[in-house]
């Protein structure tokens, strides 16, 4: 594993309490700021999925996941179970469409290399790579994600997926923990998928 990534993990592991604000400070510091060269050995083609996910570190307390994104393809809207976290843009540009479940507001924001996105517990969101550069993001979640809900708005279905699945509809039924009744508020995301196959 890359020395800088190991140093980040060690720095997080010595924290008495994991606080998102402190994690952001770690990743934003000159000493620990990641760049594309630091993660190059871990990048893989997303193939048919919107992104490839490479788990860099996982414990009950937190996880780090590196994602390499397919150009101009949204992941499905999803939550992160009881987890919260940050997504750091290491390369490229991203559009993030998020629904706040508390006040039912929809936000559409774009982020560039060097930016970070806050991912809180009361959020459903969908992301996609925009522009010509390959989007690469590093995600920090605490606790490690479990019971993530994925919403297929085209087919009006939703399910809870296991930890091996990302924000796409599982091709392997073993990745589905439970089907749920489709929550119609998710139709707010429908326009994102009109032009996608």
Description of the molecule:
InterPro entries: CDO_1, RmlC-like_jellyroll, RmlC_Cupin_sf. Fe cation binds at residues 78, 80, 125. One of its GO terms (molecular function) is oxidoreductase activity, acting on single donors with incorporation of molecular oxygen, incorporation of two atoms of oxygen. It comes from Spirobacillus cienkowskii. The protein has 197 residues and is mainly beta. The chain has one domain: Jelly Rolls, CATH 2.60.120.10. Helices cover 12% and strands 37% of the residues. The chain is built from three helices and eleven strands. The chain has helices at 3-13, 20-28, 36-39; strands at 51-58, 63-69, 84-91, 93-100, 106-112, 116-119, 123-130, 136-142, 148-152, 157-161, 176-180. The strands form three sheets. The chain has a five-stranded antiparallel β-sheet, covered by helices on one side. The longest helix has 11 residues, at 3-13. It is globular and about 45 Å long. The mean pLDDT is 95.
């Amino acid at each position: 594993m890359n020395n800088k990534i190991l140093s980040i993990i060690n720095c997080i592991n010595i924290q008495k309490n994991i606080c998102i604000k402190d994690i952001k400070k770690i990743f934003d510091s000159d000493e620990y700021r990641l760049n594309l060269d630091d993660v190059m050995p871990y990048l893989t083609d997303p193939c048919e999925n919107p992104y490839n996910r490479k788990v860099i570190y996982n414990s009950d307390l937190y996880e780090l996941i590196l994602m390499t994104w397919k150009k101009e393809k949204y992941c499905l809207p999803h939550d992160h179970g009881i987890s919260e976290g940050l997504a750091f843009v290491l390369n490229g540009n991203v559009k993030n469409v998020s629904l706040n479940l508390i006040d039912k507001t929809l936000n559409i924001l774009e982020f560039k290399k060097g930016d970070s996105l806050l991912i809180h517990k009361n959020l459903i969101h969908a992301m996609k790579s925009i522009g010509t550069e390959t989007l690469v993001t590093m995600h920090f979640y605490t606790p490690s994600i479990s019971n993530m809900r994925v919403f297929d708005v085209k087919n009006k279905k939703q399910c809870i997926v296991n930890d091996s699945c990302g924000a796409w509809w599982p091709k392997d039924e073993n990745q589905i923990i439970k089907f749920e009744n489709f929550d119609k508020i998710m139709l707010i995301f429908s326009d994102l998928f009109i032009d996608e196959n």
